[in-house]
């Protein structure tokens, strides 16, 4: 999946990551709180598995595996033992083994919602979207619809199948259960934009950008999405707090572009100059030169094209553009 500014990362417990509407960018879906061993289990088994789950939470997978194996060796179809071993297998990057363990867990106990969530997540990672969607749907039936993670994972599975129209509905259901899921909301905005549902997409982008917990990367990605939908002034407003808190050359350059598209040429030029002051680049000088020409500013035009030529020494295209630009400057 592609987005100019979004960062693709692994999913943490209870969260997703930024994506664009061609399919899920995340490596897997949201993860749940860990299920507890069933009350009906033998006391020794329950204690071992309770410990195993706590050890998984503490990321002590070696010890968790040892505890789960004590039960598994006596009962290879034990649901929670397979569930724990599935999580350990994932940690050990043995995805096929993890899938097998989760499937046994669910065959033994279909009500083990955590196994449904983990299995659908890893199937998304493996790009087995049809199977992932089926697992998520079955889990939602068991959970009577009360699982944020399964609604979210169903959305990612559907997005992987290119069924964005249904994916956005699944993500809407997920957000009803967890309105603060910034990443799912962003992914929904991207899909809505791809579907041409501009007003809804703008609403979701704004909600992401205004969330104080949103990472700067997602704020910038939302600003880009808003600008793509023609909301250039909103893009400027979204990026301004980032600039005010800690000016960064790339953020200044992005805001400069939004200002230019919003018709604020002086503001765009001020931002691109500030960006260049922090980090001169070919790209930034290119914008500066273009906008100086637009403003009929011969001095700035000459400066930017000259600096671009210096930075582009050895780059035939950059050198050629700089020469042509300097010739145009002379005519201003």
What does this structure look like?
The protein has 332 residues and is mainly α. The protein is 69% helix and 0% strand. Helix 3 (79-91) packs parallel to helix 5 and helix 6 runs antiparallel to helix 7 (148-160). It is elongated and about 85 Å long. The two termini are 43 Å apart. 49% of the residues are buried. Residues 1-27 have low confidence and may be disordered.
Outline of the structure:
The chain has 332 residues and is mainly α. It is built from 17 helices and no strands.
Total helix count?
17
| Helix/sheet category | mainly alpha
Question: What do the pLDDT scores average to?
Answer: 87
How many DSSP-defined strands?
A: 0
Give a quick set of tags describing it.
332 residues; mainly alpha; 17 helices; disordered N terminus
Task: Summarize the helices and strands and which ones pair or pack.
Layout: H1 43-57, H2 61-72, H3 79-91, H4 95-108, H5 113-125, H6 129-142, H7 148-160, H8 164-177, H9 182-194, H10 198-210, H11 216-228, H12 232-245, H13 249-261, H14 265-278, H15 282-294, H16 298-311, H17 316-330
